[in-house]
Amino acid sequence: MGIPFGRIGILGFGVACAILFAPGSASAQEGGFGRSPVVSVGLERVGGVSYSKLTADNSDDSASLTAFGLGSVNVNPYTAPRLGIDYISPVGVTVGGGLGFGHFSLSTKNGSRSEDQGSLTVYTFTPRIGYRIPVGPRFDLTPRAGVTFAGGKLSDGNSDASNGVFAVALSGEAVGTIRLTPSFNILTGLGFDHTVHASTSSTRSSSGGGTSTNTDDIKGALFTAQLWLGVGGYFN
Q1: Are residue 19 and residue 134 in the same domain, yes or no?
Q2: So which residues are the signal peptide here (predicted)?
């Protein structure tokens, strides 16, 4: 009795996948893909799509924002590009953090006269821990969690007045690493940031020549989800 060609195709596909994704196979070892990395460096959240929702306490009022961009100006510190560095232990546990910073300024020019209209500065710092799962020789999945400290400051170019915001969020994400070469990766991620504390501050010039600062807690909840892209590398 002959063997159906359909079963031969399915069997051959299964054998090919087993050879390709087996960690100890020759394909995995070729070109250094079988060696476990020690350090991961990446430029994360370079672009993608994000959704943020702000909900007020003791009411049904809310505001939401959906944004899409690739390397564009981003005023939301949670979704702004950041540099990530993580140590990868021999058992796969990762320990590291991400750091983001952005500064935007606006000026106008009337003839030869230039005037500063103001600036915006945003930053994030996220210490984190995770676990690297080598799904295949060219693909890793790393779930990780941490705490994000984020802030921003808006300054008025025509005075010393400024407004700022500071927030602390619980952060979690799943990062997929596509290994184009043993040391160069394309990164994809799905991240969530839930604010647990936020406050605003305002600084104004006083009549006596000094400055005064007022700080208020924000009564509400802010949630951000982002599907993002980035680039990175592994180092042994």
Answers
A1: no
A2: 1-28
